[in-house]
């Protein structure tokens, strides 16, 4: 019977209210309106996001039909639909791709403006629903709703796949597999020979493992409290399995002991802020990358020790593996059909629709992955705070070379000292009073300074406020003899830090928009770097307006004094740009400005670089959901330069 243009009555699972059991009901599914597609569902996974919906962790409208990870066949299409036709095999997409919005058009964005995840309206793009039950409107879940025999989705949230795709399995390629696999191969770009740690070995975590192995990682550490998952994890590529409940130390301490230096890449696929912190602390302090994939419950805060953020690590949110969904998901299906990706091990149970409740029971027991892309809430031990090492290049005139206890040191004559001004001088990276805990000694454990018979300690292994100093050879670099010694000292720290934050850390692109908090020496170097990189708009934030003329001369296009604004800085920046900035820089070291900068960046692809060193003991807390759409938080030490780099000669 031809159902085109008619309302279809079928079975669907309805959550009448949050935290209530699903009820299998007869529902009415209206025909698709213009730009919409009605799909006859063949299979669906139970994703962790669906579990958050049912638990009430996300702000949703009820009653609703859950589900988003689905595979089916197009039953009919609305006017104007051209990318699919009746009979096509398709996957539903929780993140659509309209190919028109800023995120879709940007090379690094995939969090389409027409998504219905953050926030979730529960209705189609025209503001209405296609579902009803017993005369009552039923809401959509993420504009997909796959726990039903028929669903209606926007054309931009569905994609045609190969006719040879097995519809009983391929639904996993709608969300869970690209989210995990893509986090490794596309978002993190895991490198051959690297060490990875994966928190959570459910469906997404297992896909992460597959991606790490495919990328050539030499060691993959899996963390989970359910040891029944360990054999399968090892079969997928995990080399070491850790159960936090059986460890005498915190996970990150154990990972540090196992690796010696920390993991190159850490992935959090649970959605628990404790394990997010543990993943962050498990990363290498200088170049580690921590990726947050797990969806955290609403109103939770990720808290990091602010003074120890500035180490060179990266914290990145991942949404669907950063894939542009309609462009990339079909290729993943093709890769599966060509045996380049094997999702078969991720399928543990296949149950008919009428046994959905049993599928949910298996999901919560951690024993299933299809009709479940299994994720769970794990217990994380209280992580200890991370530490890092700060490398300072010192410039001066070499006088003599000494050999002490097989360690080479250099004596330096300081011809002049130049301190660049800053209103927040006590919080600057170079001038802060609590940069890092230091021994105050040379590498051999002794000092080279005395005064009136009393030992004097070194500061950061340099101590330049003296006519003569002694530093380790590894903390000094020879420069060109023609260098003006009355000025070049700023290149040893502030210029490297600011310029490098632009070129090395953020990699500012031509035509981009940048915002800076602070107008001191480091920030001035950042401004020059952004201008040299071709940024089209550079917004500066400072409470000292006397700095504004110099700032404009350096390349600033807009100056903001927070004390003169009627709204918060981030609100003003959002209004000025419409979509948030491409790059945000914080060079002050105040928690308040760190938070303001955090809120100023683009939701889908913004990059936020922290250089300001916060006071010891302060906490930087934020909603981890701000990372989910694909934002990246980076810290920068010395602009990412190695002392012998010649980029600024």
UniProtKB/TrEMBL annotation:
What InterPro entries does its record include?
ADH-like_C (IPR013149), ADH-like_N (IPR013154), ADH_Zn_CS (IPR002328), GroES-like_sf (IPR011032), NAD(P)-bd_dom_sf (IPR036291)
What residues does the Alcohol dehydrogenase-like N-terminal domain cover? 33-163
Kindly list the biological process annotations in GO that this record carries. Answer: retinoic acid metabolic process; retinol metabolic process
- Please list the residue ranges annotated as the Alcohol dehydrogenase-like C-terminal domain: 203-329, 521-644
As for subcellular location, the record says: Cytoplasm
Enzyme Commission number(s) from the entry: 1.1.1.1
So where does this one cross the membrane?
Answer: none
Q: Which UniProt keywords apply?
A: Cytoplasm, Metal-binding, NAD, Oxidoreductase, Zinc
**Annotated SUPFAM superfamilies:** GroES-like, NAD(P)-binding Rossmann-fold domains
Q: What class of enzyme is it?
A: oxidoreductase
For whether the record's keyword set contains NADP, the answer is no
Record bears the keyword Ubl conjugation? no
Enumerate the cofactors the protein uses. Answer: Zn(2+)
Molecular function (Gene Ontology), one example? all-trans-retinol dehydrogenase (NAD+) activity
Family named by the database record: Belongs to the zinc-containing alcohol dehydrogenase family.
Per its record, how is this protein called by name?
Alcohol dehydrogenase 1-like protein
Could you tell me which species this protein originates from?
Answer: Cricetulus griseus (Chinese hamster)
